[in-house]
Specification:
The protein is an all-beta fold. The protein is built from no helices and twelve strands. Helix content is about 0%, strand content about 55%. It starts with 8 loop residues before the first strand and ends in a 5-residue tail after the last strand.
Amino acid sequence: MKVSVETAHHYIWGSDCEGWVLSPSPDLMVIQERMPPHTTEVRHFHTKARQFFYVLSGELTMELGDKMHSVPAMTGIEIEPSIEHKARNDSDQDLHFLVISNPTTRGDRTDVSDPS
């Protein structure tokens, strides 16, 4: 079955960030997300899920453990289970990316405080 942002389940998160669930299965979740300029998510980790973030347009800043990674368009970054991470859009443009998770992240997220 074909799916697009026009037909997928849509939700709002954070400060006007958006997600579209393109594949909601328990063993593989694919979400397309949009982060407006200068937005960030909460630092967190997943106990079971391995994730791959693939940037469609814009530039993702990914805090991965204690390191910062700049991920430009048409590039991706993999996040292993139990690694703390935080996606940020530090730019003046919208950021669009795919998040592919195996298995699903539903019920597998623990928020943590940012280091001081």
